[in-house]
Write a structure and sequence with these properties.
Structural class: alpha/beta
Protein name: Alanine racemase
GO molecular function, one term: alanine racemase activity
Bound molecules: pyridoxal-5'-phosphate
Helix content: 25-40%
Pfam family, one: Ala_racemase_N
Function: Catalyzes the interconversion of L-alanine and D-alanine. May also act on other amino acids.
CATH topology of the largest domain: TIM Barrel
CATH superfamily of the largest domain: Alanine racemase
Cofactor: pyridoxal 5'-phosphate
Number of domains: 2
Distance between the termini: 29 Å
CATH architecture of the largest domain: Alpha-Beta Barrel
Number of strands: 21
Length: about 375
């Protein structure tokens, strides 16, 4: 074993249940499993989220939707991303709801001459995808609703700064969205209004509306980059490896490309068989990275290579070969969170778990027990 991402599906299940318990007004939950479930494995994450009470799933691409359907997942599914003329029929083949925000999107749907459930997206301040002009968004929605084949299924928006505690911009966005979407729902009582990502779900009950769309929090990651436990969330992923080699280093000897680590005293160097091709960021070392080895925090030593990196075990650690390594996770009392790794890199936990490479197998378990190989 070089390295494995151990993912506890029971933790995802419990996180979804905890998030549902925090929703107000009977809002349903749409679990966002885009980007291979934020690196956790989309199919396993989707099944766990549904078991925890999610009623909808969301992805970004048509391929991601097709992957879930191929695994036999039948829940209501929303494709959030833009879909070109090739991707749109693929998304509909997967029986997914789709999102539009411009007239071109509506025309593309009409040209297909097939039924579709469609959500209209307002850009209430994210400045990325979505219709800026509420009047135009309403016209698009009304034309959609008047089309015999198409169904106006929802109205949505996305927050730009829900993770900033006490931020006023979220309230402005929510106001703008409600002023547009509530009259639309009066005219079309069946439609679903949705806006809240994980941070808004946790911080602004008023944003819950009919459906919440948490992603990062279902994996037990903190949208505010603090401690997930503060929100009753439990990290689902551990990134594990083992020391494959341990050897003594004399003062003055170096480790790794560019000789960027030189021992100032005799020490012991262990080699972890995970490198930047596995998603260990080269920017971490030397100088910034730590991992857990045998339940102890140790510093990374030298440059991260494509397939491995060194750790400074200190003098007299020759017997550490085969010791368990955690690049993220806990071992005994020691804990290294995705939030901490992100802080060291100047990024966010989202990027850390999404960045775990395709070469690292995802192994799913339920509180330490193997999964039923053929889940119902
Ligand atoms: C990714 C995404 C989400 C989930 O956001 P989190 O911050 O991970 O909870 C919700 N809605 C949209 C449109 C997204 O793209």
């Amino acid at each position: 074993m070089r390295g494995v991402a151990h993912v506890n599906v029971a933790a995802i299940e419990r996180n979804v249940a905890a998030l549902l318990a925090a929703t107000t007004g009977g809002a349903a939950l749409c679990a966002v499993v885009k980007a291979d479930g934020y690196g956790h494995g989309a199919v396993a994450a989707a099944r766990a989220a549904l078991a925890g009470g999610a009623r909808w799933l969301a992805v970004v691409t048509a391929e991601e939707a097709a992957e879930l359907r191929a695994a036999g997942i039948r829940a209501r599914l929303l494709v959030l991303g833009p879909l070109d003329a090739d991707d749109l029929p693929r998304a509909l083949d997967a029986d997914a709801d789709v999102v539009i925000w411009e007239r071109e999107g509506l025309e593309r749907l009409r040209r297909l001459e097939r039924p579709a459930r469609v959500h209209v997206k307002l850009d209430s301040g994210m400045g990325r995808l979505g219709q800026r002009d509420p009047a135009e968004a309403t016209r698009i929605a009304e034309e959609l609703a008047a089309d015999g084949r198409l169904l106006l299924a929802g109205a949505m928006t996305h927050f730009a700064s829900a993770d900033e505690p006490g931020g006023r911009f979220l309230d402005e966005q929510l106001d703008r969205f409600r002023r547009w979407a509530e009259p639309l729902r009066e005219a079309h009582p069946g439609i679903v209004l949705h806006a809240a990502n994980s941070a808004a779900l946790l911080a602004r009950p008023a944003s819950h509306l009919d459906l919440v769309r948490p992603g990062v929090a279902i994996y037990g990651l903190d949208p505010f980059q603090g401690d997930p436990a503060d929100h009753g969330l439990e990290p689902a992923l551990e990134w594990r490896s083992r020391l494959v080699s341990v050897k003594p280093l004399e003062a003055g000897e170096s480790v790794g490309y560019g000789r960027r680590f030189v021992a100032d005293a005799a020490t012991t160097i262990g080699t972890v068989p995970q490198g930047y091709a596995d998603g260990v960021r080269r920017a971490l070392a030397p100088g910034g990275g730590e991992v857990l080895v045998g339940g102890r925090r140790v510093a990374m030593a030298g440059t991260v290579s494509m397939d491995s990196f060194g750790v400074d075990l200190g003098p007299g650690a020759q017997d550490a070969v085969d010791a368990p390594v955690r690049l993220i996770g806990r071992d005994g009392d020691a804990r290294l969170s995705a939030e901490e790794v992100a802080r060291r890199l100047g990024t966010i936990n989202y990027e850390v778990t999404c960045g775990i490479g395709a070469r690292v197998p995802r192994v799913h378990h339920r509180d330490g027990r193997p999964l039923d190989p053929d889940p119902a």
